[in-house]
Amino acid sequence: MIRSELTFCQSWDRGKLLGWVQWFINAGRYHAISREGSLVSVGLFRMVDDEKQCHEFYVDTGGPICYVEAAVCSERGGLRELYGMLWDDVGEFTEKIAWVRSKYDNRVLVTDMERAKRRLMRN
User: Is the pTM of this model over 0.85?
Assistant: First the structure.
């Protein structure tokens, strides 16, 4: 699911991809949703101090920016649920949220956590 949705890791071999995902699991920086025994949504994130650190794999300083490195979903409404889990987990002490948007030339976008929550969680 991750490989098919994220272009930056499509060329990685299985070992590299699994090692990358395992790092987030070991760090407790992931959320996943399953339905009827099948994985339908996965989110991988890191906490960093500044935008520069978003571009560095395996950097997690515990900083005030939640960088969503990956968020993939195969069902409608799953991303909203995934982001809800993220806010419940780190939203209280996180100032900003960041992610890469491919439609903006893979630029890191950073916004206030509360603003993102209002926009992403609206009905």
Answer: yes
